[in-house]
Write a structure and sequence with these properties.
The chain has an eight-stranded mixed β-sheet with strand order 7-6-8-9-20-19-16-13. Strands 1-2-3 form a three-stranded antiparallel β-sheet. The N and C termini lie far apart (61 Å). Helix 3 packs across helix 8. With 386 residues, the chain is an alpha+beta fold. Strand 17 and strand 18 form a beta hairpin. The longest helix is centred in the first third of the chain and has 13 residues. It is globular and about 70 Å long. The protein contains eight helices and 21 strands. The relative contact order is 0.15.
């Protein structure tokens, strides 16, 4: 692998002010414009351009991985149910990982595309059809991989919930509020951070001090069937609440510890192609990664709080199901002033129900140490009446 700063850009099909990364062994090359290494934004106070992000690490790592590798993976996002678009921070990370991204409606396509290595379902607001559930079950049982983020809605979607139940997860009714792990600067325990299982593959690169962000999240409990010794599916949580969490609806609340993110995996018996006999060895089956809320990928929150672990965890979820991939996508480094999202949660919030005109967040009278910016999400349900 050789890094060039070309004196004759035309020799590399490159513009001036660019770098070219080449590999003689593969014959591949990638051109990186200087404008991709450092980005600029307009300062509205001075009406001048100021440096915004530094992305040399990410761009060069991506280029080296591309020119030296031969792995090609195709990701699809599901459409047809009011799914949200992936934020630019995530699509940029997918591109840096040298993964291709397309979209598909499995109904009009007649199923999950045969060349789909990973299907991303980002917050469907309408229910799946029975046919789609069958398609997803067949896809997973044949070794397919999916990521599902639940919409910021407490609406009941029976087919989706039935699909998740068969995968070992029972969806709790209502939104999750955590009175021990939330961001008080947002004024509500529905804006929470998770306890991470640092041993899980999705939490690679995280530690006990890593901070995540979720709002208006649904929670899960593991089904009894998935906990039996002969269960066909294994549920591995990677994000959980504290024991002081509540699943809150308009009619009541249920205290407990809830899963906010989990991986459901299947194993399949491996057959001997010559004898058609099933051996004792097992091969990797399907993999479903579930997040409790699309707010986990809130573009505004990720951009203004780059220290959050959300992007790292999600990209681990994209790559760690493949033996020939690793998460080499390095986020751009912000050159602007950033703030710490996390501060200790109070021992108990004020136990009152806000008026119907109240908002989820009120601007503080003094400048806080954190980035106190309300997320552009639906208002959470009424305050838990503890």
């Amino acid at each position: 692998m050789i890094l060039h700063k070309p004196n004759q850009p035309s020799a590399y099909d490159a513009d001036e002010d660019s770098l070219v990364v080449t590999c003689a062994a593969t014959g591949k090359e990638r051109v990186i414009s200087f404008s991709e290494l450092i980005t600029y934004t307009v300062d509205m106070n001075s009406f001048s351009y100021v440096e915004d992000t530094f992305d040399a690490d990410g761009q060069l790592t991506s280029a080296i991985d591309y020119v030296t590798g031969d792995t090609q993976k195709l990701l699809y996002t599901l459409t047809g149910h009011g799914e949200a678009d992936l934020p630019s921070a995530i699509t940029d990370a997918i591109e840096k990982a040298n993964l291709s991204l397309s979209s598909v409606s499995v109904l009009t396509n007649g199923g999950v595309p045969e060349d789909c290595d990973l299907l991303i379902v980002n917050g469907p607001t309408s229910d799946l059809s029975a046919d789609e559930v069958t398609m997803f079950q067949n896809y997973l049982s044949s070794g397919g991989q999916m990521i599902l983020l639940l919409a910021q809605s407490d609406a009941s979607l029976p087919n989706r919930e039935g699909f998740l139940y068969d995968c070992g997860l029972e969806v709790a009714q209502g939104y999750i509020a955590d009175l021990s792990q939330y961001f008080p600067q947002f004024g509500s325990p529905f804006y929470l951070y998770a306890t991470l299982s640092t041993a899980a593959d999705l939490c690679d690169g995280c530690d006990a001090n890593s901070v995540t962000y979720l709002a208006n999240s649904r929670g899960f409990t593991q089904t009894a069937e998935s906990q039996s010794e002969d269960a066909a599916v294994t549920v591995t949580p990677f994000m959980t609440t504290s024991d002081n969490a509540y699943a809150v609806t308009e009619d009541g609340q249920v205290q407990g510890s809830y899963l906010l993110g989990a991986v459901c995996t299947w194993t399949s018996n491996e057959s001997d192609e010559t004898t058609d006999e099933t051996t004792d060895e097992t091969a990797a089956g399907g993999r479903l990664t579930v997040f409790g809320s699309t707010s986990f990928l809130d573009g505004e929150i990720l951009a203004s709080n780059p220290s959050l672990a959300n992007e790292t965890i999600f990209m681990n979820g994209v790559t760690c199901g493949f033996d020939d991939l690793s998460n080499l996508s390095i986020p751009a480094k912000s050159l602007s002033v950033t703030y710490n999202m996390r501060s200790p949660s109070p021992t108990a919030p004020e136990t009152r129900r806000p008026s119907s005109s109240a908002t989820a967040w009120t601007a503080p009278t003094t400048t806080p140490r954190w980035r106190a910016k309300p997320p552009s999400t639906p208002s959470p349900p009424p305050w838990p009446m503890i």
